Amino acid sequence: MTHVRPSSRRLRSAVAVAAGALALTVSALVQAGAAGDPPAAAAATEGVSSVTATDDTVTVAGSVAPGADVDVYALGIEQEVVDWASGTIVGRARADAGGAFSVAVPRDPAAGPDPLYHRYVAVVDGVPAGTYRHVDTLDLTPSSDRPYPDAVNKKGLQVKMTDDAEELGVQHAAINLVVNDLMLATEADPADTIRFESGGRTYYFDRSEVEKLDQQIKPLSDNGVLVSLILLARHPDQVPNPDNDVPELVHPDAALGGPGALLYGFNAVTPDGVRYFTAAMEFITQRWSGAEAENTHGLPRSWNEIVVPVAEWAGRSAVTRIEVSVAAPDATGPWPMQFQIDDLAYYTRTRS
């Protein structure tokens, strides 16, 4: 059992996967002891004010001076506004008489990084207007409209032995999911490898480790237990299979192997870290939250939040805060198909 504390409040909804794609936004990176949020775009008087995603388009809208020519840049989530010049121009527009502008960015996830995951900033005459903004409105086709179930009781455990949990009448089960236990650096044994496409690249997952999780999750969800997965990262040298050594998943400033270092922050500060993390989240949610998940691999209903204060969790450690939004929304029904972890935070558990 890990030292991760379970969430103090239940998440509002569980993950569903949009047809062929998963909306994943990773933001807010903080180092050296104190977590914080990215600048709030809503506070800006000019710039991007909304980013809406549909199945095939991301629409970026905002306001600048009337009649101004606007370049809309896409940035990686590891980039800040000051890095705008190294971003990619994804659209140009001329603001109308009221200052409003809008550009549409086509989505083709198979061709490269999905625009769903970018930060967007408006630039006028070589100067950023306001700050960046991520996708904030999701109008995607859900893979499922299954309702969120009602639990019979409040009894919950962190589960390893599913038969014991069922015998005890557990209705809520927490299961550790160590992300870098699942990923492979290369395709070592094709028979024991699951190939997965993300952002136009191929990633590899350890079939044996993935199926071990199936065997934990499915018996519980089949019996009506509400399963929560706890997403973790550990030292690359501590994974069960040497081929699972994917150091890109771990924050580069983590003091690997330091005193008390049991778990590590995910890497959302380098392009490689972001793409590996994105691929992992897409794979995990598609396998265990897709339309047929409950009939094939098992169906978790929520994902762990860590809401422990930084001082208690990390002390003076190097810290990374990651906010994740994984979504395939459906505005109708008793359980909207939108999953947002507003303050999911993984802190590098090391001492400085």
From TrEMBL:
<dbReference type="Pfam" id="PF18989">
    <property type="entry name" value="DUF5722"/>
</dbReference>
<dbReference type="InterPro" id="IPR043780">
    <property type="entry name" value="DUF5722"/>
</dbReference>
<protein>
    <recommendedName>
        <fullName>DUF5722 domain-containing protein</fullName>
    </recommendedName>
</protein>
<keyword id="KW-0732">Signal</keyword>
<feature type="domain" description="DUF5722">
    <location>
        <begin position="148"/>
        <end position="293"/>
    </location>
</feature>
<feature type="signal peptide">
    <location>
        <begin position="1"/>
        <end position="32"/>
    </location>
</feature>
<dbReference type="GO" id="GO:0005975">
    <property type="term" value="P:carbohydrate metabolic process"/>
</dbReference>
<dbReference type="InterPro" id="IPR013783">
    <property type="entry name" value="Ig-like_fold"/>
</dbReference>
